Amino acid sequence: MNHRILFVPAALLALALALGGCTSSPAAAQPDDILTSALDFSALDQETLAGSLREIGQTVTDPESGVSVHINQTLGNSMILYVSFTAEFPEGTNTEALAAPEVLLAEGAVTDPAEAKAMGYLSQTSSQETAEDGTFSCLVSFGFDRAVFQGQEVSLVITGFPSTEESGGVDTNLIFTWTPDNQGPIQYVDLVNEEGKMVGTANFSSFAVNVTLWDQSDRSDDPQTFIRSIQLLDQQDTPMETNASSGGGGSSAQKQFRTLVDVNQVSAIQAGPYTVSLTH
Question: Measured in whole angstroms, how far is the alpha carbon of residue 269 from the centre of its chain?
């Protein structure tokens, strides 16, 4: 077998290297208008944003209802996932009367909404905005107190857009499947009392905090009091502004942040009667 060796003149090689050095890497993706209208990104560093934001770009149209939904982006980590999408409706649809859609997230690739409903998957919060052209922008979020989104296939299922009136809702059969790889950082904390005994667990990220206290006596009889006690403290030991929505209130509670936080600025976590300092 003959082998030919190609010699490149030094001047041409230098020119090629110089031109190669002039190429700029593509700009990192930025959150879309749906995310930025619902969440405050001002404290989030670019490294965390780059790891936690993903472009999806999937569009599915329901042949029966004529509704077309485009998933724009996802944001989060292995425990919380925000999904932004837009919906377009057939001419004549009264979009002003439509409420936030019914959305499920199931592990694996599902082909039937009933299959996803049977799995009973995921609490979610929604925000929406109806445009003058009859389109509909929406942000949904799914949160857990454990890691779920770890590079495994998931299916987002939109089963309908309810109406705020007695009739006029829109049924849909829209299924999107992809593999999340959002990698926002998560910090895990053992909650301990003054004697050093472990009394619960916590974890937090730029997007949410989860707390579990094992002993009922450590939690208020009022669930909201327990939830309000959960705070991230900054370097000056001041509660950080998170503008959070919350859930739980038994032994466990979660807060999902609308004002995202820089985890490097968190010095301590407060929950019930306990405050635990952190090391970075």
Answer: 21
Using only the alpha carbons of the chain, give its radius of gyration: 24
C-alpha to C-alpha distance for 190 and 104, rounded to whole angstroms: 32
- Name the token pair of 183: 């990698």
Nearest C-alpha neighbor of 181 from the set 52, 35, 57, 41: 52
Burial string for 214-223 (b: 16+ CB within 10 Å, else e) reads eeeebbeeee
User: Could you give the C-alpha distances from 164 to 53, 69, 140, 143, 208, in angstroms and in order?
Assistant: 32, 20, 19, 26, 30
The CA distance from 211 to 248, in Å, is 10
Task: Please write the tens of the pLDDT for every residue from 27-50.
Answer: 678 999 999 999 999 999 999 999
Q: Report whether 157 contacts 116 (CB < 8 A).
A: yes
Token couple for 64: 């029966």
* Exposed e or buried b per residue across 60-81, where buried means at least 16 C-beta atoms within 10 angstroms of its C-beta: bebeebebbbbbbbbbbbbbbb
Q: Sheet harboring 53-61: ordered strands across?
A: 53-61, 68-76, 80-88, 135-143, 125-130
Q: How far is CA 189 from the centre of its chain?
A: 21
CB count in 10 Å sphere of residue 30:
13
Rounded to two decimals, what is the model's pTM? 0.84
Q: Tell me if 123 sits within 8 A of 143, measured CB to CB.
A: yes
Which residues lie across from 61 on neighbouring strands?
68
- Residue 218: what are its φ and ψ, rounded to 5°? -85, -10
Sign of the CA dihedral with 107 first, then 113, 115, and 116 last: positive
Structure tokens at 166: 């007695």
Per-residue pLDDT, 98? 87
Specify the 3-state DSSP secondary structure of 264: helix
